[in-house]
Every structure is written in structure tokens, then in C-alpha cells.
């Protein structure tokens, strides 16, 4: 079955997704009867394009990576050059006859989750399914967007929001029927975990952070990570989806890491413990993100570098942990692809 | 939707399953439109019963736990008292009009996986779905049983075969589409993990084993565990299902633990390492079960007592680990229940 995609956001994740779609094309077709065609792309800095007959995603990624705008792949005979993401969503919704999915990969706005939420709302209103790697929609507006999707018989999926492609939301939804999640604790931000690992060896905070930035692990503006906002957004998404919390990242009790973490991390390590930025929550209570000293044999204490882990506390199965031991862009791209397969599977049902 | 169940095996797992079914009855109905009715029970030592109108599973469990045979709940007007498991399967297949599932919970026969395989074959031949907690069918005869199930449009599920109710097979099948499993390594036998943890403190093997038996952790005949057969059966099932190995537990290169493990475990611990019975495999090679010295910060090295973990090596997501941090009979019973939900979900598709 053909599914038409409109990509909103075409940064590192969006472009890796476009390439992964090609790499997995034959397998998606053979195993899932899924034939994805990109018909629209909206970007913040590289223009936009629409082509009802299909856009070559790899060529488009090459174009952007060569520093050229997407206007070159736009089909001028069909529509005016779209100016904004909402234009591309509207064009895709009007054009395609069959199933349409908006693939949202813009970056998180920690203030209010927009414009990602706007994109999701517009897509659902136009009858498009949504898959997104952005944490904002599930962290800020889960209940409302879930209700809109359900009312339209549409999917709203976001596996990439937490632990990239390693299944968390799909894991609970698809493989733990009737199980109630009572709480969770996790190390779910890689940058702070990298920095804390460096601090344990006696490195000071500022040089450690600068080194992580030089290595491309931390962002140029690392505030989202070191202040705990990224972990708080993930904790809010987890609490909203798994425990019906109905909160935003601003409700999370949040303590980040900073220069003061260096001595604490080194001292903890010297006494056989590990300082880790832990996101935790109990059903009915507000999630917490804060540095915690953990015994070294604790599952979360042993995580180094990009390794992430989430421990779910459940009613029937006690504690279950899922760990992402590697990492990388392809993981997040895969999350989008796995969500597309879920959209396809639901069409058979 | 009503689904009729024939229980083959009614030991600790089967009885806990019957009780769990009652505990979750309203949720199964509300969330999954699943109404399970037990119509037959076959046991090795407590007789058998058949009642087309439905058997009260909790009452039957109470009866057996009071040391009485199941004959009392048998409906004598409908059929002669069934003598064997195959009789109960045949009665269930003939009697029920709608969907029928054989729930197989007999214990593993490490010689050839029978009679569990016979039960699965008979159930599939009679048009019944199969869910089982027995490792034998997937460890000894996966390809053949899978082909029979597929040919009949039936489900053959066995989530409980490895790590009890924590999803492994469902995890890969439902949440990792297009991902290829390249290998695995895991600590997947609780008894040996308990014993090795005891040996690390300087306890000798025989007293440690005797203490585990007294605590009910090790079996009266612990050979299946300490000789590595249980882990080998699980490794074979994993290799067959996840990597198309087509092997039996007898193909696994297997080394168990014994009196010689005591000094090794204590010495490893003293030098900051942990001795663990590890099952591992690479696609295309024969799985191995053997005691391995692991760094303490290794995910598998840190597991204590009943904790189990499986690390999957994949093409797209590097290494992913799933950990079962608690344990107990309800976990295995839950595995059967989650498989029943899968059977139900497939009926909608």
C-alpha cells in the first residue's frame, strides 16, 4: 500500500530518515506491504517543496547538505512554492488520495512545544496521521492531541521522543496489555551522562562541557541538556502517556547539573557510587529530574556515555528495564520508520 | 468476543494463570473485548475435566491445591472422563464453535521436548491456537510448528519461554519492524544466578545449592538449571525464533556450574569481577552457555538473584537490553495472558 509523506523539518534527523526510508524500501514493501512516497518537505532554512508525483528523498537530502534550497525539487506547475510548514501540510492533505502521514522532526521549543504542536494539530485536522520525533507534542499537549487523533480515526505516534528508536511507548502499548505502569526512573539524557562520566575522572565542569561540544556530543547551546529541560520534557511525555499525568515539562521538579556537580561526581565515584541525572516519577505525583548518587551496581549507575535506560515499575511484572546501549542519528530516524509501520499495521486492523 | 480455553498442564503456572484470568477479567473485556472461558483441563496427576459450558478456573485451582482430583468438576453428561491431554484437546476442538486456544504449561522435557510438542501439534491440527510457557516447542521444533500454525491461520505463541512475562519475542515481533537481530547475550536462568551470587560471598557450592533448594529457589532435582540445560533451551528458542537457527538445545555448546565454580566466583568478586552463567549467540553460529567473568559495570555482571537480562545486538539500533528485575509465578502466568491478547488482536486484523 502506498502512503504519502509530508516531512515537516528536514534537519539531521529528517534527512537521515529520508535516507533510511530508501535503505529499507524493499524490506518495508516485502514485510509490511508499505510503500512510502515523500510528496512534501518543509524546512526552516532550506525552503520547501511539493511534488504530488513524489520527491526523491535522498536527492533532496543531498541538495540540502550541499547548501542549496529545496526549491529546485519543487513542482512549480502544481502549486506555488509553499512558504511554511502549514502550507506543505495543506498541500499534502489536498493532493493525496490515500493515506497521508505528516512526519514532524522540528526541534523542541521548551517554552510551549510550538510550533510542533501547531503542525500536529494542522495535520490531524486535515486528516493526516502524525509521526514525530519531537518531544513537545507529547510533553505539552498529549491528552488533547490524543483525543483529536482518536476522533479522526488517526494515529499520533512519537516513539523517537524518548530513547530514540528503542521502543518505550510501543513497548508498553503493544507488548504489556493490562499491565499498569506505577512509576519509572531513568537516565534519559545522553549529554549530561557523558559530562558526568567525564567529571568522575576529576575533570572540571566547564572544560568537560567544552570538550563535549567540540566532540559534537553537546549542543552549541547546551542549556536544554545541562539544565535538565530535555530530561524534564521526556519525563513529562512518559508521565502523560504511561500514567495519564496531564502535565507539561514546566510541572516537573527539575535540577540540572553545573560546575558544582564536578566535585560531587568525583567524590561519589571515589566512594564507589555514581552521580547520574535521574528522571523519576510515581503515578499521581509530579516527576522529578535531579542528580542522584547511585550504587555502582544499580542498573542506572552503571550506564556510561550515550547509554540510556528506563526502569518501569509495574503492577504485574515488578520492575522491567529497557536499555539503549548504543546511540546515533539512525536510531531516531528508525523511531519514525517504526511508527510508520504501526500506522500501516493499524490500516489492516 | 468469547474464546474457549483448554488448559494442558495445571501445575503452579497453570493454576496461577487460571486465577490471573479471573483477576483481570473485567480489564480484558473492557480493553480487549476478550472473554476467556476455560472448558477443559488436563493434568498429569490430578485427573482431567471437560465442561462445554465452562469450568470455574479458580474453583478448579482450589480443588487441586486441596489435593483432590479434577473429576469433580467434569461434566459427565457430555463426555466420558478424558484420560489424557490429547483427549481434552480433541474434546475442546469438537465442542467449541468459536475461537479455541490450547494453553500449554507442562514442564520441559530436555530430551526431546515431548509431550509438549505433541500437544502443540494436536492443537494446531485440530484448529486450535496455542499459547505455551514451555520452552520445548520453540527450542526443539520451532520451524515445523511455525509452518503448521501459519498453514492453518493459527497463532503459536510462547512469550513465557524466556524471561517469563517480560516481553522478548513479542518485543522483537511487534516493536522492532525491519530490525535484524545479529546476536544476543544474556543471563536467563535465575537459579544459577542465585547460586553464583551466594558463591561470591565464599559459600561452597553444595551448601549454597542446598540452601537454594530449602528456600524453594532451586528444584529438588536442580540438574536442569546447574548443568545449563534450562539456559540452553532458552538460547535455542531465542536463536530459532530471532535468527532462524533451526537448532535444538542439544546443539548448544553448554557448560554448567558446579563445585569448581565456588572458588572461581569468589576470586572473580574479590578482583572486582562477577562470574555469571551467560547464554550467547551470533547469527549463523551455534549458541554457547557457559560461566563468564564479567566486569562489575557490565549490565549482565550487575544482575543479582532472580534478575535476568537479555542484550540484543541489532543492525539498526546497536545493542538493546531488556531486564527483568523482579520475578515470580505471576510473571509466567502473565506471559500466557499477554499471548492470549495477541491471539485476540490478530482476530481483529
Concise account of the structure shown:
In chain A, 41% of the residues lie in helices and 21% in strands. By secondary structure, chain A is an alpha/beta fold.
Give unreliable regions of chain A as ranges.
none
Largest binding interface between chains: A-B, 47 and 47 residues
Q: For the residues shown, what is the average pLDDT of chain A?
A: 93
Write down the Rg of chain A.
Answer: 21 Å
**Number of H/I helices of chain A:** 13
Structure class of chain A: alpha/beta
Structural shape of chain A: globular
What portion of residues of chain A belong to β-strands?
15-25%
The ordered string of helix (H) and strand (E) elements of chain A is EHHEEHHEHEHEHEHHHHEHEEEEH
| Assembly state of the chains shown | homodimer
Percent of residues of chain A in helical segments? 40-55%
Strand order of the largest sheet of chain A: 3-2-1-4-5-6
**Termini separation of chain A (Å)?**
14 Å
Strand element count of chain A = 12
Report the biggest beta sheet of chain A as strand number plus sense, adding barrel if it closes: 6 strands, mixed
Q: How would you describe the overall organization of this protein?
A:
The structure is a homodimer of 349-residue chains. Chain A contains 13 helices and twelve strands. By secondary structure, chain A is an alpha/beta fold. The longest helix of chain A is centred in the last third of the chain and has 20 residues, at 329-348. The mean pLDDT of chain A is 93. At the A-B interface, helix 2, helix 7, strand 12 and helix 13 of A face helix 2, helix 7, strand 12 and helix 13 of B.
